[in-house]
Amino acid sequence: MQQLFSTPLCVDLDGTLIKTNTLFEAFLVAIKRNPLRFISLFFATFRGKTYTKHIIGQYAKHESFVWLYNNEFLTYIQTEHAKGRILILATASDIAIANKVASELGIFQEVIASSITTPVNASTKYKVLEERFGNQGFSYAGNSHADIAVWNISSSAIFVHTPKAIASLVKKSIPIEAKFPVTKHLTLSDVVQEIRIHQWLKNLLLFVPLIMAHQIGDGKLTLHALVGFFSFSLLASSMYVMNDLLDIPSDRAHKTKRTRPIALGTISALQAIFLAGFLGITSFALALAVLPFSFFQMLVLYICINGIYSFRAKKIPYVDISILTALYVLRIFAGSAATIVPTSTWLFLFAGCLFFFLACMKRVIELLQLQKAQDTAPGRGYSKQDTKRLVTLGISSSFLSCIVLGLYIRSNNVTLLYSRPELLWALLPLLGIWIIRMWHLTLTKRLPDDPVLFTSKDSVSYGIGAAVIGILLLATL
């Protein structure tokens, strides 16, 4: 048996050595680098699958990747390599991608992969290996139904995350060298984590126009705001999923984002696409069925701005925080569109200043969390040198929001809505205390990645929020 297992070991790539699909990840990186590449790839499909894989491989040559290896299996084949066993990377993916993986690991004596001159796909791989090694002249490590044909001509099998039904068919005919079972299955909690339900708190901004206009007691308008909240939240979750697909390399290099289900491979790329599509379609269906068409336009605008942010602006310093601010303010516009309740310019000025400061704070937190050896935040356009500048911008914007609030209290608009507007001056010290505390926590590195999410869980912020609500009610009575 030991002699049997010393035969050359051919290792599948996608789903076996690497948990995910390398070709699809290379495709996503290529599209994110230049969205216009999608057009050339679309036309490439008319020339066949092999040519399409070749084009993606050419794009991948000049990119860096953080591959999600099956670490337990990788350790096994590294041990086999150390014993002197011949290892061959055998994949239907493009040769350029396979060579990148092989070069990174340095344990493969040969790479068998698809190229323009020698196409390899899932259904023909067994023929290529049989021509190279002969019948039962090699062992094979794989994971899927497509690998059965290869196992049928191999001397032994290694199962890596292989479904039980497939494994039971193969083990009847050939010896099993090793098994690496699935360590984690997709769960509902993974889906909940991926769609980021906790981020739905941001969409409570859709209720702001109704609250500030003192019309929250109107049943029909409140229902419209509630439908708008769920519609916008579902669309936002859909965009989170798509962003995570595009951000796989940078997320895997990030201290906390690497635990996201898509980055971990818990949710596959195909599952993620279906999930994003379902959430998006449901969002638009709700909007078109219940709400004014202007709200649907807000959803489309949100997708456009989010797309600009994801594909380009995310890595452009200071432009990215401006767009993040716009996405927050857009939620207030969306709430106004859902309820047909107009809002004042003061509200948008105040919200713009407040959320610009929070966006600056978010970037400052990311820079402060960098290791000593790191100079730039993964997936961002900032370096440590930008920290002081971002702090200055953020502090200026945060206290500018206090000035805007003071000017609003002095305006004529206030007397139309509040019977005792003089009580509103008590809002200023409360806002100032909250801002100073948030900056203190940030600069002492005690604030997590997302200041908005932190606020939603912070007891002190809850206390200040309750005091603000009390003051608004007293000023109204």
User: What's the CATH H-level superfamily name of the largest domain?
Assistant: HAD superfamily/HAD-like
> What portion of the residues fall into strands of 2 or more residues?
5-15%
Mind summarizing the main beta sheet? 6 strands, parallel
Helical content class: 55-70%
Total beta-strand segments: 6
Distance between the termini: 87 Å
Coarse structural class = alpha/beta
Q: Provide the CATH architecture of the largest domain.
A: 3-Layer(aba) Sandwich
Radius of gyration, in angstroms, nearest whole number: 28 Å
Treating each run of at least 4 consecutive H or I residues as one helix, how many helices? 22
Given the C-alpha coordinates, what overall shape results?
elongated
Q: What name is given to the CATH topology of the largest domain?
A: Rossmann fold
**Assigned CATH class of the largest domain:** Alpha Beta
Biggest sheet, spatial arrangement of strands: 3-2-1-4-5-6
Mean pLDDT: 91
Low-pLDDT residue intervals, each spanning 5 or more residues: none
What count of domains describes the coordinates? 3
Secondary-structure element pattern, one letter each: EHHHHEHEHEHEHEHHHHHHHHHHHHHH
